[in-house]
Structure formats: structure tokens, C-alpha cells
Amino acid sequence: MDKLKKSMKDAKESYDMLGEYIESRDFVIMALTSNRDSVQELLNSHKKKMKERINAPEAMVIALKKEIIATTKALNTKIDELERELALCRVVMKNGVSSAVLNYEDVSKPKEFSGDKVYM
Q1: Once rounded to an integer, what is the mean pLDDT over residues 67-77?
Q2: How high is the mean pLDDT of the chain?
Q3: CB of 92 within 8 A of CB of 100?
Q4: pTM to 2 decimal places
Q5: Distance from CA of residue 93 to its chain's centroid?
Q6: Half-sphere exposure of 10 toward its Cβ, with a 13 Å CA cutoff?
Q7: How far apart are the first and last CA of the chain?
């Protein structure tokens, strides 16, 4: 009978140890899963930041191109205006100032013109 009790006791100890092993294994699996999820979240965050950093210069280049196009259009408009004024000046100089008839639309005002007459 002693042998049976001893065997039962050994079996119970083995069963308890197996239960502890299973609990600790489950704990380790849970901890590893949590760590894996945290690492995956961190990787996703870094991946998103890297995409933003990669796309940021592209967006800046597009914005700069649009700005350059707008500036070029404005400069071309101003060049056209100045070429018209130059052509008018050439005609005036060719025909002589006395025969020239200018209206106020042909002469642009300086931006700082206030409308007041200044006598010197």
C-alpha cells in the first residue's frame, strides 16, 4: 500500500508540475504575443512616418512647381505690358513728342502714387 500511496503522491506532484508548466507556458505565450503586437505597432508607426518623410519632398516639389508656373505667368504678363509700353514709346520717339496723343490708360501710375500734387 505504501508503494501505491507513493505512486499516487508522485503522480499528483507530476500533475501539479505539469499544471504549473502549462500555466507558465501560457503566460510566456501571452507575454510574447503582447511583445509581438507592441513591436508590430511600433514598426507600423515607423513605416507611416517614413512614408510621410518620403512623400513630403514630393509634395514640396509639386507646390514649388505650381508656384514657379504662377510666377512665370505673372512675369510673362508684366513683360507683355512692358513690351507694349516700349512699342508705344518707340512710336512716340519716332513721330516726335508733339504729335503723340497719350491717354491715361497708356501710362501706368507708380504704386506709391497718392494722387496729391507735389510742387518742388
Answers
A1: 95
A2: 81
A3: yes
A4: 0.41
A5: 54
A6: 6
A7: 134
